[in-house]
Amino acid sequence: MSSGGPGAAVLDAHLVVRRPGFGLDVRLRVAPGQVLALLGPNGAGKSTALRALAGLVPLSEGHVLVDGADVTTAPAERRPVGMVFQDYLLFPHLSVVENVAFGPRCRGVPARRARRLALDLLAEAGLDGYAAARPGALSGGQQQRVALARALAVRPRLLLLDEPMAALDAHTRVSVRTQLRRRLAAFAGATVLVTHDPLDAMVLADRVLVLEGGAAVQEGSPAEVARRPRTGYVARLVGVNLYRGRASGTRVRLAASSGEGAVLTVAESVEGEVFAAFPPRAVALYRERPAGSPRNVWPLTVDGVEPFGDRVRVHLTGVLEVNADITAAALAELALSPGVRVWAGVKATEVECYPA
Amino acid sequence: MRLSRLAAPLCVALAACACAPGTSEQDGRTLTVFAAASLTEVFGGLGERFEEEHPGVTVEFSFAGSSALAEQLVRGASADVFASADTATMDRVVDGVGVSLGPEVFARNTLQIAVPPDNPAGVGSLDDLAADGVAVVLCAEEVPCGAASRTVLEAAGVAVEPVSWEEDVKAALTRVRLGEADAALVYRTDVLSAGGGVLGVDFPESGEAVNDYAIGVVDGGPEPGLAAEWIALVASPEGEKVLTDAGFVLP
Amino acid sequence: MPVSSFPERGRRSGRLSAGRVPWLLVLPALLGLGFLVLPLAGLLVRAPWSALGARLLSAGVRDALLLSLGTATAATAVSLLLGVPLAWLLARTGFPGRRVVRALVTVPLVLPPVVGGVALLLVLGRNGVLGRYLYEWTGYSLPFTTAAVVVAQVFVAMPFLVISVEGALRGVDRRYEEAAATLGATRWTVFRRVTLPMVAPGVLAGAVLCWSRALGEFGATIMFAGNFPGRTQTMPLAVYLEMQRSPEAAIVLSLVLLAVSVLVLVLLRDRWTGTP
Fold first, then answer.
1. pTM over 0.80
2. Assigned CATH topology for domain C52-273
3. What is the CATH classification number for the domain harbouring A167?
4. Which in B61, B133, B209, C102 has the greatest CB count within 10 A?
5. Do B162 and C228 touch (CB under 8 A)?
6. Name one GO biological process term (chain B) (predicted).
7. Taking CB atoms and an 8 Å cutoff, what residues of chain C touch A84?
8. Of the residues A203, A236, A269, which one is the last residue of a structural domain?
9. Confidence band of B6 (pLDDT split at 50, 70, 90)
């Protein structure tokens, strides 16, 4: 699968890396000013893909074109690439401004001009007061901004970000994410960012590519991917109940992997192999079999209960597995605990059904 | 002074030892001999002879520059016999520790110029040692060999700047044997001991510095009886033959 | 009646109470410490303090000291120049025969120095396997020169530097070098501006070790370079030879060496060499 986009892509890559026990094969196209997020579980190959783009990992096959120029065999130092690493990797023996000026100086810019350039970038990031400090004296969020400034100082055409939020605590993440979004929006080249946090992908990216087991399993805008997940991983990530089955009319018979024999009723007619998904908040729980509108009703057993934000997520097993989000009040009223039997109901209109 | 003058007192001492109970039990006893480096081959051979004649006895040698050995003895090293390459060094031990059954001069040695077999620098006399580009090795002056070297050079009026001052005469000889030095002033006996490894060049001034080798029993040593027997061996006709074969001159 | 019941309680319970000294460890430790410290204390006690001044200023002591300091420093410089690249090759590349090379590099560490001196003589001497060509073509022979002292010292001391720097290089986080590469640094620039500064404490520690070892070298020096005051007579040689002639002079020389060693160790304190 390759992403759609205008003809003059900044990045055009086909990355094939073969190693014992691991294989990566993915195609990427990123337009100028676009941000592509590589989303996937650990071991999916996202970091390998990023490192291959940077030139730190050799390709077994494929190509990397930046602005039409073939850099497939070029070593990292000759690619027009800037990279921000997960642990930032700011040189501990250099000051903040020396870190940012490092790239330009390596590329031949005289020391004074490089320092000027570095100070300007730091000012943009709001860190000019820390120019003489050592990286160790900065907070996580500040280090991330310095790392970004350092990568941008070499005026790259391709910006690579490896899990940019991973090293930050939850509280800092929110503000840093917003700032990063603004900086990325102002960047004219292509950005590829790797993350396992769907929120990063949602907020920062224009397009999302889901990698699992070294291959792309889904690609699209963040909203598309969230609304119509194609794998269990993505579904869990965005918090939906996802099933595969065979549709005939408005009835979907679920496949063995999703819930043998169970039948889902959906709102619109559809034929063939389909995905069916509904969010946990669409599930209503009853003590007794309800009468009335929900066409999808099943007797299930409570398997687990845990707080989820200001709601409670109840995990149910039985003819199929369902996650239901209910209020704390409802929890108390139903007196739910593991082992209790309840009825779960979902309106047909709440079920999203799309071709597999 | 010949070692034979010691004959009478030696016999008495030996007789006394023979009467002492337990002297026939010689298993596991060690005789320690400190001797000048130039006595290495002579004493080494006599040592084997001694061990044959005294079953159960081991002779242990320490061969080094006489002044190093003297210093060790004065500082309390344990030895039964001391044989030095000159009387001055022996006097230090006499003063510092004490010596009995001696000291007596038992051999004499004169210097010779040692050169590699092909004599690359064409050295024929002491004067040649001072020529440009000749790599000469001398014994350090505190060693008897070195003192003797200084005497003969002064007598000949030759000023030599060596490339190295060696701390014992065997080390100086080795430099020549390896071809690292063009010439060295060593003892006649050392040249002979090297066999074909070096060539000896005589010079007239050698008579100016004759080293008198002295030997004696060190006071406080663990085996005075064995020490006396060792000296007897050195003084015997057999010992004298070994010394003269090696190039020593008998006093 | 015991004055205090506490020891009795300890005996009765049979357990180790807080404050009981582990004599099984302390005794050998004290013995070890004594073993190391007493000889040095003995030097201080037997020093001819009254005549120290005059002896210290004598030409012989000054020559030996300057020669020792100069050759040790030169040997360390050579070791840095040759040893750091060697350490880098051993730490960073996987060239065939690397294990053999590393084993060879450590041989001078276990070889008795005098054996090293013999080896140097047989190879680089005037009649040596290689030295003879040098002599034939240029008339220059290495033994008996100050350069020979440096060569002997490099032979015994460089392995310390190589092992130390190799260890430091292995400990460097390679990701910093990757980061530098993505910023446009060539391999040489990475080495110069990232790797080397990050291993600087390890290199310094190795250099100090190398310098100290070179300063104290005796066996290889006397064998290969010979003994001549001002030219090849380093401090250790001077001490050895003086002991035969004038023990007081030997003690003075020993004290000077001891003072220099302590000074070096104090100057290059832990924070410079990066020890935690």
1. no
2. MetI-like fold (1.10.3720)
3. 3.40.50.300
4. B209
5. yes
6. molybdate ion transport
7. none
8. A236
9. low
